[in-house]
Amino acid sequence: MQQLINKIAGIAAIAVLAACNGAKQMPAADVVRPVVVTEKVVFDTDDPAIWINPADPAASLIVGTDKETNGGIYAFDLNGRIVRKVVGLQRPNNIDIAYGFLLAGKPVDIAVVTERETNKLRFFSLPDLAPLDNNIGIDVFAGEKQRDPMGVAFYTRPSDKAIFVIAGRKTGPAEGYLWQYQLVDDKGKVALKKVREFGRYSGLKEIESIAVDNELGYVYYSDERYGVHKYIADPAANNNNELGVFGTTGFKSDHEGISIYKTGPATGYILVSNQQSNSFMIYPREGSKTNPHQHDLVAEVPVLANESDGSEVTSIPLNDKFPKGVFVAMSNGRVFHYYDWRDIAKRAGLE
To answer: What are phi and psi of 255, to 5 degrees?
Structure first.
């Protein structure tokens, strides 16, 4: 009996020591596990985007950043294998994708990446990742003392298919934190025309993740340790008023990656990374029954991804592994996780 007591005491002591040393706890049994974990990048994964192959959804790509000096962007297939990459970028942070931008009269799918150490946005064609900016990038936040671009998202206006890019930075003013630019064709290369400054900032930490709902015309961004802000995405609306803030409670620390799962023209879910809890908070895309800008928590879903920064999701069926779409999340360990949406929905109790 004494040996058993000593053994239990020893185990308890080891557990206490591990906790004091910051050792990671084992995941809970009900945590949602990925179907695929990608091959590792060199430095530190940060943000993914999903390119849907229109001819063959099973040949779609996950494109993600490797965030460090001389880092890069990597294209993975749906099995998590690296199939293409661009390296030598100076701390690429966030990434997003837009479809059908007209360059020299031809529609081109585009990836945009923030290059933090050069204060530029970089543009690449998809699926080949060829540069569309003379391979030097385009300056943003010109004339500002605080630049360091981090977050980025495309907005495609449904009425005329004009494409805009919204960029955030490491730090900035209490008002006008985000800048929005319209993409223009400059002799077959991407150029930018600034159209507005907007967006409040709490000053608590930083703003990184930005997501746009093209169909409903809203932009969301994570104000870390404060909440998720919501604005109108179309600069032609001449409305820079904040529509709402949600996710102000229930987060352990940082608000991170935002992604939007669409179940219909105006319905679905907004997923926000509760980074230090290794979980995602899920809110209704359509808002409440009485207020489209009131997004109350639906569920919190624990995932195996560790301290996830960026995420992306699609409801488009891709293959047998992802018949209801895929949810992609960055995880520590230099990888991205691919989750079967059905597993997320089941754990969240969604219809």
So the answer is: -90, 125
Q: Please give the Cα distance from 234 to 158 (Å, whole number).
A: 10
- Record the tokens describing residue 314, joined without a space: 């699609």
Q: Is the bond preceding residue 127 a cis peptide, omega within 30 degrees?
A: yes
| Backbone φ, ψ for residue 322 (5° rounding) | -130, 65
- Residues 155-176 pLDDT 10s: 999 999 999 999 999 999 999 9
Alpha carbon dihedral 274, 245, 181, 275, in 10-degree steps, equals -10
CB 256 within 8 A of CB 279: no
Q: Which of 6, 71, 106, 34 is closest to 311 using CA atoms?
A: 34
Q: Which amino acid is at 269?
A: Y
What's the token pair of residue 27? 């995941």
Q: What is the pLDDT of residues 246-283, one digit of tens each?
A: 999 999 999 999 999 999 999 999 999 999 999 999 99
Residue 349 DSSP class: T
Tell me how far apart the alpha carbons of residues 127 and 102 are, in angstroms, rounded to a whole number: 16
The model's pTM: 0.91
Q: What is the dihedral of CA 302, 67, 324, 100, to 10 degrees?
A: 150
**Helix or strand (DSSP H, E) at 343:** helix 341-348
DSSP 214-268: TTTTEEEEEETTTEEEEEE--GGG------EEE--SS-SS-EEEEEEEESSSS-E
What span, in angstroms and rounded, lies between the C-alpha atoms of 253 and 247? 11
What are the structure tokens assigned to 187, written together? 């002799």
What are the Cα distances from residue 107, in Å, to 99, 309, 321? 8, 31, 30
189-200: strand order across its sheet: 149-156, 163-169, 175-186, 189-200
CA distance 120 to 129: 17
What's the rounded Cα separation, in Å, for the pair 325 and 313?
7
7-44 tens-digit pLDDT: 434 434 333 333 333 334 556 668 999 999 999 999 99
